[in-house]
Write a structure and sequence with these properties.
Helices cover 49% and strands 15% of the residues. The strands form 2 sheets. A 5-stranded parallel beta sheet has the order 2-3-1-4-7, with helices on both faces. A hairpin with a 5-residue loop joins strand 5 and strand 6. The structure holds BIS(adenosine)-5'-pentaphosphate. BIS(adenosine)-5'-pentaphosphate binds next to helix 1, helix 2, helix 3, helix 6 and strand 6.
Length: 214
């Protein structure tokens, strides 16, 4: 089915999935291929935490307990971010929208073309997140599946403790269903098995994006 005709790289994508489903891992590759900015609300917030800004201080308490920040804060961040020049040929959201209010707000300012949902079983998610390690410049490794090379300095996210992961999962399952229905009605929702090997998952994502955008 030919769904969209737009110039190369002109595409708005949302990556969706439970914590640890692989949104960030695959978003980096998609962003490179289509030359669109990878906008991760989690990364934006972690950056604010690192800089100890007022927003960062507010964000930290929510993030450390696995809860979502209030919609008005996130909506303001996104509206501001979308005004930047690099979004004129598209964007790739990772971690947004996470509530129906966020999805409805996005609808008033932009038309997403694809929602890619990575589905993953909870036991694998726990293993992936407790094993996740990250470098200072954002490269994602995993002590079980993709260990960092010797000598590479990595750290563990504060919210990657098992108890917090379980709360993040609970929050995800609490909020996901209305968002999924919202995008299914628009016929832009694509579900992919997120528990396959990384190359296999990525190939499936590219197949969907390439097939539907030419
Ligand atoms: P955020 O940073 O968005 O975290 P998350 O959604 O919980 O997702 P993660 O980053 O943990 O997982 P991922 O799917 O990106 O997995 P990854 O690719 O790293 O949000 C953090 C917090 O910020 C929230 O809890 C909330 O407080 C706040 N927040 C953010 N956005 C918000 C919003 N819109 N509204 C309100 N609050 C918000 O992969 C995980 C691991 O698995 C890695 O080690 C990777 O190497 C490995 N892996 C991935 N895929 C594979 C594969 N196919 N095979 C083998 N290993 C794999």
């Amino acid at each position: 089915m030919v769904k969209f005709i737009f110039k190369e790289c002109d595409v708005n994508i949302i990556m969706m999935g439970a914590p640890g489903a692989g949104k960030g891992t695959h978003a980096k590759e998609i962003s490179k291929k289509y030359q669109i900015p990878h906008i991760s609300t989690g990364d934006i917030l972690r950056d604010e935490v690192k800089k100890s800004t007022k927003l960062g201080k507010t964000a930290k308490s929510y993030m450390d307990s696995g809860k979502l920040l209030p919609d008005d804060i996130i909506i303001e961040i996104i509206k501001y971010r979308l005004q930047r020049d690099d979004c004129k040929n598209g964007y790739l959201f990772d971690g947004f929208p996470r509530t129906i209010a966020q999805a409805e707000m996005l609808d008033t300012v932009s038309d997403p073309d694809f929602v890619i949902y990575l589905k993953c079983p909870d036991d694998l998610i726990i293993k992936r997140l407790t094993g996740r390690r990250i470098t200072k410049d954002g490269k994602i490794y995993n002590i079980y599946f993709d260990p960092p090379p010797q000598g590479v300095e990595v750290y563990q996210r504060d919210d990657d403790k098992e108890e917090t992961i379980r709360e993040r999962l609970r929050v995800f399952y609490d909020t996901f269903s209305p968002i999924m229905d919202f995008y299914k009605k628009k016929d832009i929702f694509y579900e992919i098995k997120g528990d396959d090997d990384r190359d296999v998952v990525l190939e499936q994502i590219f197949r969907i994006l390439d097939h539907n955008k030419t």
